[in-house]
């Protein structure tokens, strides 16, 4: 069955039917004490939203979201909201198509990004993630690698956890400097940025100040969907430079009117809760589960690749060159354990992904431990 599936989302749909779902990166952990109080107040939040202007709820959500992330330079009017990051990506893709803008997209990354671009008639060209790994060579390696009109990066990246923040400010500064000097549109997917914020080694500097003062043309995508246990109640944010705003806004309004006022009210409380607890509810479960996965799989066929940022997914290398990810994933599914093969993340060269699998970490720790224990048993039984 699994070999007939066309993309990672189809795999994730199948994984929702299994007992040990380590596939989708959506948040399935239980509520923290502060979040339990929000859930208990849902009726009041409903009526509060009902009595409040849509514009006020939108402004409040943007304010608390960017305050949490330390992005104090964002102009509220430059940010457009949608109910899923895929919709924001669709709008960005439609802008590229309308203006006949060619784009280079980082590889590996989640296959939803190239799929959305393909579906609107944009054919992305791969740019290897490793061109970003040496801060002193980012500029020259981009100059040698990028032949398109736009550069599309994911930071932190899904599935690897790499981030330009591993270079401090310099990583983003070098990318922006390259884009300005070479007149490239810079598109950046920041949907995992909350994990950099939650990681005490990183945090976030005010990226929008850098973008807006540099003169770069840009589209930035942010999201709530992978951060809090919201049962997929979420909101994505698209922010662009002034020179793009009118065109992007006109495309955006052709796609949707607004995000549910109740969802905006509900989400704002979760964001405020994370401001109060310093992102502990996000950080602690991911850290605990990553450690559990490393311990459970130590010495096995799967080798954990340490991410730059402690994101909500774990990337494992298959240590036996004769074992392919697609075969291993099929074997694991027969044992009710569902992981994602690396092939789809290497969207231009799937064969390169046969050496990797991805595990999702945003799970209740007790259930996650049971899953990785079963995973280890199934991995050890592979080929036996």
UniProtKB/TrEMBL annotation:
Cofactor(s) of this protein: pyridoxal 5'-phosphate
Record bears the keyword Hydrolase: no
Membership in a protein family: Belongs to the class-I pyridoxal-phosphate-dependent aminotransferase family.
SUPFAM superfamilies: PLP-dependent transferases
Top-level taxon in the UniProt lineage: Bacteria
InterPro entries: Aminotransferase_I/II_large (IPR004839), AspAT/PAT-like (IPR050596), PyrdxlP-dep_Trfase (IPR015424), PyrdxlP-dep_Trfase_major (IPR015421), PyrdxlP-dep_Trfase_small (IPR015422)
A Pfam family hit: Aminotran_1_2
Name under which the protein is recorded: Aminotransferase class I/II-fold pyridoxal phosphate-dependent enzyme
GO molecular function: transaminase activity
Domain (Aminotransferase class I/classII large) ranges: 83-361
Keywords, sorted A to Z: Aminotransferase, Pyridoxal phosphate, Transferase
Stretches of the chain forming a coiled coil according to its record: none
Signal peptide: none
Protein's UniProt keywords contain Transferase: yes
